[in-house]
């Protein structure tokens, strides 16, 4: 019986969750600060508690890409 409840309570992994879990070197709090949004809101987006608009999700992804571009420019 508990197994059934556990399966029902499991949330679907969000796109942002998959990005951050597959790249543990990313710091969600630092990305949020860089974007000027609260760290708790970013956590809610990643966990699926809140769903970002398409524009906000694109902004988060583009911010992460910008960080990657900046890292590749280090000599």
Q: Helix and strand string, N-terminal first?
A: HHHHH
Total strand segments: 0
Mean pLDDT comes to 89
Mind describing the biggest β-sheet? none
- Report Rg: 15 Å
Low-confidence stretches: none
> Which word captures the global form?
globular
Helix content: 55-70%
The third-level CATH topology is 434 Repressor (Amino-terminal Domain)
The CATH class name reads Mainly Alpha
* Overall domain count: 1
Q: Give the CA-CA distance, first to last residue.
A: 57 Å
Count of DSSP-assigned helices: 5
How does this model look, in words?
About 70% of the residues lie in helices and about 0% in strands. It is mainly α and about 80 residues long. The chain has a single domain (about 1-70), classed as 434 Repressor (Amino-terminal Domain) (Orthogonal Bundle). α3 (about 30-35) packs across α4 (about 40-45) and α3 packs across α5 (about 55-70). The longest helix has 19 residues, at about 55-70. It is globular, with a radius of gyration of 15 Å. It starts with a helix and ends with a helix.
